[in-house]
Model the fold of this input.
Amino acid sequence: MPQTIAITKAVTNLNEAQEKFNIAQTNDPQFFTEWLNDLPELTEGEKNLLDRLKNRYLYYAADGFILEATVNIITLSPLLELLGFCDPPFKIRGEKFVKVEIDNGDTVLEGFIDTLVIKNLLWVVLIEAKQYSFSVLQALPQTLAYMMANPHPETPAFAIIMTGEDYIFVKLNQQLRQYATSKKFTLVNPQQNELYDVVRVIKRIINLYANG
Done:
């Protein structure tokens, strides 16, 4: 019988994730170009809504710490609706149970993902920033563990880790055993609304892979 361990206990830092899953971060600039190249344009209506979402988040953030459930309502849900992910051909799955075998099947990591999974392609990981020094990268190890449970390892998997204020994209290629991240997008940039870029990157990923 294989040993079963909760993902949250087995993977607590990036070194553990890399060792247990035999993966490494690549610096190849050609590995993750989906967040940089050929991004689609947004309509004026989309920009207006994203401006509202940014202003709304900053309005709530002015009171201090924002609960995950609140971020879900004021930011994430409207974003998913804007992108059309609540309707066919997409399907959102929350609180998804995943299992990942390691050590040649001798150990099984399992757990429920407090995320949304869209067509086994885009894993949306919403986390609470319990203090202003919190970094979205702190959620990267467990996000990689969840992505390793992708039932279609022949296709690259993508994730977006978000706090409501900060956003970072992750790409994982299981066949190459490599991953990479995008830059951090943030709503505290006073010169532009970086939600524009977040939505454009998501659209680019979906356009490239959703019908594959």
Observations:
- The chain is about 30% helix and 25% strand.
- The mean pLDDT is 86.
- The CA atoms of residues 6 and 110 lie 5 Å apart.
